[in-house]
Amino acid sequence: MSSRRIAVFVDGDNIRAQHSDQVLFEACQLGQVSIARVYADLNQRSDWLNKPGYRLMHAGTGKNAADFLLSIDAMELALEGGVGTFVIATSDGDFTHLGQRMLERGLHVLGLGTEKTPERFRLACTKFIPLTNRNDFDSMETTEGGCSAFDVKIRSMIAQHSMNGQGMRVAELGPKMHKAHGIKISTYPEKTWRAYLAARPLLYELEPRGPEAKVRFRPEGFALQ
């Protein structure tokens, strides 16, 4: 199992929020996602505001403001050390220099972008994966022991509503998942959230039954095995 910490940086002015699940999914396959940020001008209405699992970074107005702040933060983190893999989600070739500099420092760079992404940025990454336009991303399969895109959504929801690191109430998970993603657990084979979570002990830790029972995700379970 990989123990590498992963940092995710999304060019929110360039990548649409519909790709949020795939971005986290691909990052999860590489190790533990410790940082997930979206950079955008938040004075403008953005669908990223409704996507759990990300920290939104207001870059302000002005041409390339998000690009500059993203690059500064990413290089600062790279110089600090402790993070060995960076996921950069953008279709903007201007990030080529950022990718190249990270490669020169021996870091692993996963690039994510649409089909229009310039070849120069693709070559500045250790690996580049095109973002899919499919709406049924949950149907993507994973390698044995990996986590599904559905589980990435659950992990993000738990992380967003965790109480002082102790997890979130199981009773709240269903309503929040339905509101955010339109998911009804009754349509899944397990039928209930407790049954679904209990069937995946490598991914989730459940407290005994009760109105205040909480669920926590296991970071090591979401790392590549």
From TrEMBL:
Occurrences of domain NYN (ranges): 5-131
Superkingdom classification of source: Bacteria
Pfam families in the cross-refs: NYN
Chain segments annotated as coiled-coil in the UniProt record: none
Protein name (Swiss-Prot/TrEMBL): NYN domain-containing protein
Source organism (scientific name): Thalassovita aquimarina
